[in-house]
Amino acid sequence: MPIQHDERVVRNAYEMVKPKYTRLAETLEDALESLLQESGIKPQYISYRIKTFESLWEKIKRKKYQYPFWQTTDLCGLRIVSFFRKDVAEIGSIIHKEFQVHEVIHTQDTQAVDRFGYRDDKYIISIKEDWLKSPVYRGLEFHNLKAEVQVRSILTHAGAELSHKLIYKKTEGLPEEIVRKISRASALLEELDETFDDLRSKKEDYQNEIRQKATATPDYWKTLPLNADSLQALLDHYYPDRGKSDSDIEILLNDLNTTKMNMEKLVQVMEDSKEQMCAFEDENLINGPRLSQREAANFACLSNPNWWEFVIRRISENGEL
């Protein structure tokens, strides 16, 4: 016979354990951000939430839980939204490697074959015992605490949020015309997910092809048009181990175009500045991080008079580079 829980008793218990789950969520968020950064994966965002008591109480009654805080595995929930669908599987591999995984739910495996768009992966996890030996986590009482980590692409996320906004997460009982439109919209989102994955692969292949041809024929760089892909390939060639970001590429490309810097000129100033840049770093950045790819390119471009004029104008207008 199911246990009849007293709402006041459960609420008091919830208030006692809530700080532990909040600390668990903060710890997992920080850890996941670091782990993804180390793996070169840049998510659109990572966030967490702690289930409200009202939501927990409703679930306890609906599921008829006898041991609510043991059976509820999503009291602490985290969401990782990636830019690309391909990253969803890679993030899943990292979660399997770094955490104790108790259960995995692939929405793709549980929905009908004619349902489109809504695809995410959910992992019920806990922190490994080894983590609890670290001074950072020691004494935090994370034993037996579980969290649900949901991983989805940004387009899947958009579709889910819009469906939620329209209260159309379930289609039972809706007019046939609305159901058809929901199916069409979901199919388009899924196709777009695949298209952007394909575009990223083509972008990476193009950059690799550029580097291979330039390695075989150094003058090949000078024949290329200056665009985001050729610029990134060039920076990876000259500054392979330096920090980089998509936003840096966008800013640098705009600056280079503003100063009428073409690929041939850029290759030349990068070649000419190699020794000076190393000397500058040895003298001024002994204990700090080295220049990023964008900063290194800026340093190289200082030998160009147009760049000096541009830098002075930007400082006078904005007060910063």
Description:
- The chain is an alpha+beta fold and 321 residues long.
- The protein has two domains: 7-193, Beta Polymerase, domain 2; 217-318, no CATH class.
- The chain contains twelve helices and five strands.
- It has helices at 7-38, 53-63, 68-71, 85-98, 107-110, 154-165, 176-216, 228-238, 246-258, 263-284, 293-301, 305-318; strands at residues 45-50, 76-82, 100-106, 120-126, 147-153.
- The termini are far apart.
Percentage beta strand: 5-15%
What's the architecture of the largest domain in CATH terms?
2-Layer Sandwich
Strand order of the largest sheet: 1-2-5-4-3
Give the H and E element order. Answer: HEHHEHEHEEHHHHHHH
User: What percentage of residues falls in helices of 4 or more residues?
Assistant: 55-70%
Structural class: alpha+beta
What's the CATH topology label of the largest domain? Beta Polymerase, domain 2
Total number of helices:
12
CATH class of the largest domain: Alpha Beta
Number of strands: 5
User: Radius of gyration, rounded?
Assistant: 26 Å
Report the end-to-end length measured between terminal Cα atoms.
70 Å
What descriptive keywords fit this protein?
five-stranded mixed β-sheet, 2 domains, alpha+beta, 58% helix, single chain, Beta Polymerase, domain 2, 12 helices, 321 residues
In short:
The chain is α+β, with helices and mostly antiparallel strands. It has helices spanning 7-38, 53-63, 68-71, 85-98, 107-110, 154-165, 176-216, 228-238, 246-258, 263-284, 293-301, 305-318, and strands at residues 45-50, 76-82, 100-106, 120-126, 147-153.
